[in-house]
Write a sequence for this structure.
């Protein structure tokens, strides 16, 4: 016959309870999807996902201000875009100083039968330390989408307190036949911030 005393029974019952809870905790439970994981039929893909499947356009930098004053003036504190399809369009470019004609010269010498130029502007800023970087350019039909980053140096970096105009000016290779009417969209942080025209 088994001799059970209160002294032996309590630790045994305690061990059995702990084992029961431990085994129950290890069972797999059905996962409830997080809101961002729930597929929605009408959900449009994020800009970063969508542009990975579209044809990209080749481009090279003509001029940028690299966090300094810059030579191109844009009279707005909002982002903007200018498209140069022919040498005559260069007259619309407003320069900070008359000596800053290098960007204008490069634009006038551009082979517009093979390229067009695009100027992305962040808007007027209160100090140095801001810059624009174009990361990729895609095309789909008559729509060209420009993906860019608006960058800012860290707060602890030295800045000059003067109005600056961050920009990035690129020449973009035309992909074969080029439509007369093209819409240009500027995407920053996965949102269209400017559409031109």
């Amino acid at each position: 016959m088994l001799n059970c005393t209160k002294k032996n029974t309590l630790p045994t019952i305690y061990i059995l309870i702990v084992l029961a809870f431990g085994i129950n905790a290890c069972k797999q439970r059905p996962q409830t999807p997080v809101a961002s994981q729930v597929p929605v039929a009408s959900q449009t893909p994020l800009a970063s996902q969508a542009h990975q499947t579209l044809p990209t356009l080749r481009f090279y930098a003509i001029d940028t201000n690299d966090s300094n004053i810059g030579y191109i003036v844009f009279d707005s504190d909002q982002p903007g875009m200018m498209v140069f399809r022919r040498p005559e369009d260069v007259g619309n470019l407003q320069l900070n100083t008359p000596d800053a004609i290098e960007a204008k010269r490069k634009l006038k010498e551009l082979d517009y039968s093979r390229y067009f130029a695009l100027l992305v502007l962040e808007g007027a800023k209160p100090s140095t330390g801001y810059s624009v970087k174009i990361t990729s350019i895609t095309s789909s039909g008559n729509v060209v989408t420009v993906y860019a980053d608006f960058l800012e140096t860290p707060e602890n970096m030295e800045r000059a307190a003067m109005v600056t105009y961050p920009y990035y000016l690129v020449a973009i290779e035309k992909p074969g036949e080029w439509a007369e009417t093209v819409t240009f969209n500027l995407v920053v942080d996965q949102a269209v911030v400017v559409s031109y025209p």
